[in-house]
Specification:
Blueprint: E1 6-7, E2 16-22, E3 27-32, E4 37-41, E5 47-51, E6 59-62, E7 68-71, E8 75-79, E9 87-91, E10 98-105, E11 111-117, E12 128-133, E13 139-146, E14 149-154, E15 160-165, E16 170-176, E17 182-190, E18 195-201, E19 207-212, E20 216-220, E21 226-231, E22 238-244, E23 250-255, E24 268-272
Antiparallel strand pairs: 1-24, 2-3, 3-4, 4-5, 6-7, 7-8, 8-9, 10-11, 11-12, 12-13, 14-15, 15-16, 16-17, 18-19, 19-20, 20-21, 22-23, 23-24
Active site: 197 (proton donor/acceptor)
Domain SMP-30/Gluconolactonase/LRE-like region: 16-256
Binding site for substrate: 99, 101
């Protein structure tokens, strides 16, 4: 079993982000966020590119009835099949000063989609939002004072949610009630000055966090102990981490070239995990 990350694709993206595994499209899919494109890696390791027509492709999730949900610059779009172009269904805001960034589909089938300002400065700190959108496309603001909304994921027993507002340099934790509402936000663990980016939670409740600008993947226990820390060789732009594959034990990391010009940037990296993933929740809408 691989005990360190290996680069498994060439440089295929500029700002690779948001990896997610689904049999719906035959393997791993991730976004080239600032190009608005979806990239799919099949089991052979070959990567194909799908131009969505959107300016931004923030994150992607499978749909329960086939196709996919795409978060675009300012809203959500749907495609009816895995490789069709999406059609816009919901606009969350109109200001050109902001864009969507990261998100997920929660265990109740709601979409979490967070925003960030294009220009991050003293004036824009705390001005972005995190939305929760129902399968009927009814949006609700869950957090209205974030700066760089990033990874969010839930514990296997559905009692906790973990969240990164990257600018705070910490991973936060929420309690989750029976209806899936977030409450009692507090600090889970600091990132030692690094930038916590995408995250995922495995089937034993361990939290995997990509530390951007550091080239690291850190694994926490539910008790906030650091279980493992992996350094990807020669890169710094680690943006997100997910688990998937046939047995759920493949770990995939996306690396951006936005602030990293090394040869391993813009690629997907891989290793094996002793603990499998939780199932990916498809969007029921």
């Amino acid at each position: 079993m691989a005990e360190k990350f290996e680069q498994i694709t060439p440089q295929v993206a500029f700002h690779a982000e948001g990896p997610v595994w689904s049999e719906e499209w035959g393997g791993l899919r991730f976004v080239d966020m600032l190009a608005g494109d979806l990239l799919t890696m099949d089991p052979s390791g070959s990567v194909s590119r799908l131009e969505t027509g959107a300016r931004i492709a923030a994150f992607v999730r499978p749909r329960a009835g086939g196709g996919y949900l795409l978060a675009t610059e300012r809203g959500l779009a749907l495609a009816d099949s895995a490789f069709a172009a999406p059609e816009q269904r919901l606009e969350l805001f109109t200001s050109p000063a902001y864009r969507l960034n990261e998100g997920t589909v929660d265990p109740w089938g709601y979409v979490y989609a967070g925003s960030m300002p294009y220009q991050r400065n003293e004036e824009t700190v705390g001005t972005a939002k995190l939305w929760r959108v129902s399968p009927d496309f009814e949006p609700q603001v869950m957090l209205d004072a974030v700066t760089t909304s990033n990874g969010i994921a839930f514990s296997p027993d559905l009692s906790r949610a973990y969240y990164n507002d990257t600018t705070t340099r910490v991973t936060d934790i929420f309690d989750v009630d029976a209806a899936g509402n977030l409450c009692n936000r507090r600090q889970f663990h600091g990132a030692d000055g690094f930038s916590p980016d995408g995250l995922t939670v495995d089937s034993e409740g361990n939290i995997w966090v990509a530390l951007n600008r550091a080239g690291k993947i850190r694994v926490y226990s539910p008790q906030a102990e650091v279980l493992q820390e992996y350094q990807l060789a020669g890169v710094t732009g680690t943006t997100a981490v997910t688990l998937g594959g046939a047995d759920g034990r493949d770990v995939f990391v996306t690396v951006s070239r936005e602030n990293d010009d090394s040869k391993g940037a813009g690629a997907v990296w891989w290793m094996r995990s002793p603990t499998p993933a939780q199932p990916v929740v498809p969007f029921p809408g």
